[in-house]
Structure formats: structure tokens, C-alpha cells
Amino acid sequence: MRRIVKSLVATGLALAAVIPAHQAAGAATTGNPTRSTSGFYVDPDSNPATWVRNNPNDGRKTAIQNSIASKPMARWFGNWSSPIGTAVGNFVGTADRADKLPVLVAYNIPGRDACGGHSGGGAGSPAAYRTWIHDFAVAVGNRPAIVVVEPDALGDFNCMNADQIAERNGMLSYALQQFKSNAPNAWAYLDGGNAGWVAADVMAQRLTGAGLANAHGFALNVSNYYTTAQSVTYGKAVNSHLPAQKPYVVDTSRNGNGTGNDWCNPPGRKLGVTSQNGGGPEMRLWIKVPGDSDGDCGIGAGIPAGTFSPDLATHLINGN
Prior knowledge:
The protein is of the alpha/beta class.
């Protein structure tokens, strides 16, 4: 986080004290995390960066380091991140000390990936999820962050019954309220699917029902391949059906060649523009980690969801 400099004059000497904003005296105030930091955080422990570090003699190392591992991208948190408060706190704390803006993904809703199935799991119960997401938000605290809340959670409604949908809406609404109350300098974006999944008017209804009013905005194209232009068209259409328009972000990690015929490790996809402000949406972000498998499918057959593959990464670098 940018530092607040206070000039103190005493006994004829001017003293400068550099204090992290989240430690400054007085109550925390809601801020713009993109303005209180000096750029997006590059995670030195991302899956691609860890692979590069552990494979110094691999011929693919240089390309993966230069094209992927050295770029800012999100870190995903789920039931593998235990205890969640420590995991989140360490991540945002390290980014804060570097004066950079971290991007986090909360991915632990019970019954997640109900339609796709490759990333199933999540917290064991609604009560467990509420505890988990509360601890997540508290760990972010007053520090700046971008948080994408529960990819696919609203798109999956077609694979759920009415009781399950109502239960999920309650959990999502609770999650957004937690970030609003406990992380005043973070922007939370509720996932809103992608341009080819759910009709814009239906997605607007789902976002509203899941508590979008308490979020900064919504996220589009997470882990998918639609071009930014297609996502912007969809985002505008969603906004036209909302009670009040909201900003949105687009995942550009793998949309360089646009979409193909499948969503699960399809061939012929390519890296998109790296994380930056503007460009149609409020931000273009690498939310999906390039090279992380979508599941045991496509050109990632045999590679579990979330596992980094240098072969998948190389396909994205070369666009084949």
C-alpha cells in the first residue's frame, strides 16, 4: 500500500515517518485499491513461478517465466488453504509491503462446479462456508485487494434445484456482506459467468438475488476464453437489466484467440493481455492461472483441475 508520510517538526528538527495506511491512526476509510497501490502484485509463489523455480534445466522454463510466471495473476483460495485466515493474511500482507495490489479468488462454496464437475467440493456445509468466508474477509482487513467471489456459482443454477439455489444465494449474500463490513479497502466482484453461458437478463436477476448490491461489481469470463469485446458486450447487457449499474472485470488470461468449441482445456487458445486497468471493463485481469488445468479433459487429459502443466502453458504461449 502506498505510504502516508507525516512530517513532524520538533526541537528544530524535521522528522519524516512512513506509516502503512492501514496502520494509521483513526478509523479505516473506504478507499480505491487501484489508487492506493503502485500496480498489480506478481505472486512469486504462483503455480507457474514455482514450476520455473523447481525446473531450472527444463527447456520450457524461459518462455514460461517470461510469458506467464513474471506476470500478475490471481491466487485462488479454497479448502486447500488452511487455515484460511493465515493463508489470506500472508498473501495480502506480502503484497501490501510491496505496495502492490493482490487479486484473490474465493472458491469454496459448497457444491461448487455443479455443472462441470471437475472442480467439485467446497466447504462441508453452509455454516462451515460462512465461517470460512468471514475469516477470509477479516484477514484482508483494511489492506487493498481485489477479490473475485465464487466463480461459476451463479452459472451453475441450471444444475441445482430450488432449495439449493436459495441456500447458495444466502451464502453468497453473506460473503459479499462480509467483504463490505470487514475489508473496506477491497473491491469484491461477484462472478457473473461468461458471454456464452446464461442470458444477460437472467444473469442480472441471479446477481441481484445473490446480493450484488453489497459488491463493488461483477466478474466475467473467469476461466473461459471469450474475447474482451464479447465480454464487454455481455457486461453492458447485464448492466442494462440491473437495478443499478455496476462495474465489472474480465478475465483475459486465456482469451487471446477467443473461444473455441469447449471450455475444458481446449486446443488453440492463447494468452490474453496482462492485468491492467480499463480497456472496456473496469479492469482486465488474469484470474485463471495460465497453465493450470481445467480438469482431466481436452489437451489436459490426465491432469487434475488446478494442477499446473508446462505443456498447457506452452500451448497458451504459442496459441496452438
